[in-house]
Design goal:
The chain has 289 residues and is α/β, with parallel strands linked by helices. The chain has two domains: 24-44 and 194-245, no CATH class; 68-193 and 247-288, 3-Layer(aba) Sandwich (Rossmann fold). 26% of the residues lie in helices and 29% in strands. β8 and β9 (236-245) form a beta hairpin. α3 (68-80) packs across α4 (98-105). The model is unreliable at 1-7, 10-14 and 18-44 (pLDDT under 50).
Length: 289
């Protein structure tokens, strides 16, 4: 569903910084300053992800992402949980299929699930272009999707923490746990909430195609909020938001335990180094039944 995450909000690179926008031109003089206005064409809501991830503007804003980080993560997964031991994989919140396709190329039998029909359509085309036969995609809600039991369930590139209510995010973990075979493994790749709070970039101005884009970031309680204002000379102003909960180790430990999962590792990056809250770029959790 956050994470092209899995290609998602924060998704991946973090919602707190602007590393995902490398290559876009800054144009500080052309970007207007925006205020909260009820005249904006799209207002954020609890279901922000339903409209944003299905929007062509999402694809344009994140068009400059490359596959380097995704390839590094998939390489680590394949080394740690090889396809001969964990042949079937559910990529929950697969986005446009970047990780799913790489996993299939490694030899896993992959099912990718995402709430966005547009994302699933793009993922299917991506897999077809790679001529893969060991992969399929479905539209589904990560809170309730139910498929065959899998040897491994992945939730990658911050495709988690999108729901306003904590119980909905708990339901996601419980549902992923229920998808596992008896000795299955869950891999969750998430932002580092401590580092996000410390390194937030509050304002950013970029040019996306022929649109001027003003981005703000703020922490509202336990949520990092990224507001994206697009201004087009013909269509006017449109606003979208990305809202991701800032959960830490202790929250995950308690919720995973309630879901019948035991965390075996907390890692801090895609090379598998130990998680250090003050420094690690990611929070990568490996758990099993």
């Amino acid at each position: 569903m956050l994470n092209e995450s899995s290609d998602r909000a924060a998704s991946d690179t973090d919602i707190a910084d602007k590393s995902h926008l490398r290559g876009l031109s800054n144009d500080m003089t052309r970007i207007p300053q925006y205020t909260k206005s009820d005249t904006l064409k799209f207002m954020a809501s609890e279901k922000w992800f339903e409209s944003w991830f299905d929007s062509p503007l999402y694809e344009q804003l994140y068009a400059n992402r490359d596959d380097t980080e995704a390839a590094q993560l998939v390489s680590w997964i394949a080394g740690k949980m090889p396809p001969d031991r964990f042949p079937s994989v559910l990529d929950m919140g697969c986005g446009r299929g970047r990780h799913s396709v790489m996993l299939a190329e490694r030899g896993y039998s992959v099912t990718g699930v995402d709430l966005s029909p547009r994302a699933i359509e793009k993922a299917q085309k991506r897999s077809e272009s790679h001529k893969l036969t060991n992969i399929r995609f479905e539209v589904g809600d990560m809170r309730s999707y139910h498929g065959d039991p899998y040897d491994m369930v992945c939730n990658l590139f911050t495709s988690f923490g999108y729901f306003e209510k904590d119980k909905d995010n708990r339901n996601v973990i419980e549902n992923m746990s229920n998808q596992l075979q008896g000795n299955g493994v869950l891999v969750l790749d998430y932002l580092n909430a401590v580092k996000v709070r410390r390194n937030i970039v509050p304002v950013e101005n970029v040019t996306v195609g022929d649109m001027r884009c003003h981005i703000t970031r703020a922490i509202e309680g336990d949520t990092i909020v990224k507001t994206i204002y697009f201004n087009h000379i013909e269509s006017g102003e449109v606003r979208y938001q990305e809202r991701v909960k800032l959960y830490g180790e202790e929250w995950f430990r308690e919720v995973f335990g309630s879901a019948g999962l035991k965390v075996s590792e907390y890692l801090g990056d895609y090379s598998g180094t130990r998680f250090i809250p003050e420094y690690s770029p990611r929070l990568l959790i490996v758990a099993g039944r």
